[in-house]
Structures are given as C-alpha cells and as structure tokens.
Amino acid sequence: MPLILTALIALLPSLASSQETPGFAPCDEPLADKDIIGIWLHDEVQTHGQYAGLRVWTQLELRSDSEAIENYFSADPNESDLPAFARLFLTWSSGSYVDPEPAKGSYEVIRLEPYLSANYNPETNSYTGLRGAFLPIFRRFVLSPAKDEMTLTTSVFLGLSTETQALTFPPDFEIRNFQRQESPVTVVEEASWGRLKTRSP
Q1: pTM for the whole thing?
Q2: Which of 38, 71, 81, 89 has the smallest CB count inside 10 Å?
Q3: How far apart, in Å, are the Cα atoms of 55 and each of 18, 75, 115, 187, 197?
Q4: How confident is the model over 42-56, as pLDDT tens digits?
Q5: Which domains are delineated in the chain?
C-alpha cells in the first residue's frame, strides 16, 4: 500500500469514549523511549505565504530532553553549507487529543510550544530573534513501520488544555512527509546571535 494512502488511513481519528475529556492528554511513556526522536527532513515548493514559489527544506529535530528545533533552508542541508534562513525553538511532547466533537474521536498528536523565533541576516552573519510566550500548536502524525518516514499535518492551534477551551481539529489540514536523517546534520551554524527581543506577555 502506498505510504501516502497508509498515512491517510492512519491519520483517521480513533473512536473516543464519551467519558474522555476533550483536549490534549500527554503520553506517559518517557520521551527518551519515543521512536520519533531524531532529525527529520521535508522539502517542497511553497504555494502560498511569504515564501511562495521558493523550495524550502524544513528540518525538524525532536530531542529526548523535550527540546525541538525547526530550521528552514533554501538548499538541501545535506549538500549545502548555507545557514538556515529562519529557526524556531520549541518544547515538545506527544500524546492524544480528544476532539470536543464526539463523532471525531481522538488523534495522536505532537504538541509544540515555541519560545524563540529567529531570522538570519546574511549581511551581519547573525540571527535576530524574538523571544516570548507563544501559543502551543498541534500536529497529527504517523510513523512508518520502518520508522524512517514520518507523516505530519501542518500546525494548528487547538486552544488550551481545558475542556471549555479545546477546539475541534480542522478538516482542511495539509500533509507533510518527513524522512529520517541517518547521519545527524548539525543545526549549529557558524553565525552569531544579534539582537534578541523579548515579547511582552
């Protein structure tokens, strides 16, 4: 069965018990034991937004200490020394998300909470960052049987963790196929950190 079809089937929601509380419930398994830990790479031509028409390589590193880094490159980082033109630093956890609409069931998700966004300035060879408390985002995922490919949906905001604030998962999500990187690609470029701004709460 083609991977994309397998992924679509796997991304279908599981039936949820009527007694389950809507919202996110973290998995009890230690992060260090999770198969999704590692460095993942996806590339595609952007069809909308700031980088429309540009082919972008997205490198997602999920670490066992609950830290994550998402780097955006204009060339394959396995074949180029170009630094990431944008970086996003986050904390992460995985678990299940019970949709507030009972018929939609529950989903396996990664919860990502950004705390630092940075853009590269080639003129100064440095990053300018914005640090602050950002809203958490969620991505549904499925890992291939060989654990070398991971299908992720695009990020969505689903409210906070309480029942009254949980939102239903939108039906128009997009799918991204990431490949595991066998040889870890460094995410530390030879660039300095320039101005950092702190976003007020």
Answers
A1: 0.80
A2: 81
A3: 44, 8, 26, 19, 29
A4: 999 987 777 778 899
A5: 3-198 (2.40.128)
